[in-house]
Amino acid sequence: MRNPFEAIKETLKNFTDDDPKPPLHVGEVMDLWTLYTAFHEAHSLYYIALNMTTDTALLHTIRSAIEGSQADTKKIENFLLKEGVPLPLTNAEKPLSNPDSVPEGVRLTDDEIANLISVKVAASITFCAQAMAKTVRTDVGMMFFSIQVHLMEFASPLKNLMKERGWLRIPPSYMPPGNPERK
Hints:
The model has no long low-confidence stretch (mean pLDDT 91). The chain has helices at 4-13, 26-50, 56-82, 110-134, 138-165. By secondary structure, it is mainly α.
């Protein structure tokens, strides 16, 4: 087995500056495009959520999500444009409306909103890790890492809010066959 410190040292070597920078490869471009598109879809979800809840803690969480996601989206957009990559088509922003005017059969509950956002964030965290592992260019890998960290910083308070409100959906405990029951 390898010394963990040597493994960390070897990993950090991969994050030193590329000089000169190689061109983006198609996988890096596709992953940047995918994340850019996913974030724009998330913006739509966040604005829809703003239009459906009056819960102040959830509204604060959604506004934080919008702020962080828009900053990361702009970072990806600027990078793609600087590299000469055309941007994918995205949806138009949703207008704000009064949550009380959304009919009951259409309105999402606060629980549904929190869980939709949570799943979107969890998928984005996983996507960033996979994309980062496939990058060749250091700047692209660091961008995915930076975005992943922002997502994790957002996910923690969201999870705490979901626990506090009873919205967190937890799978049943797994008891392998042959294990004594826990009391």
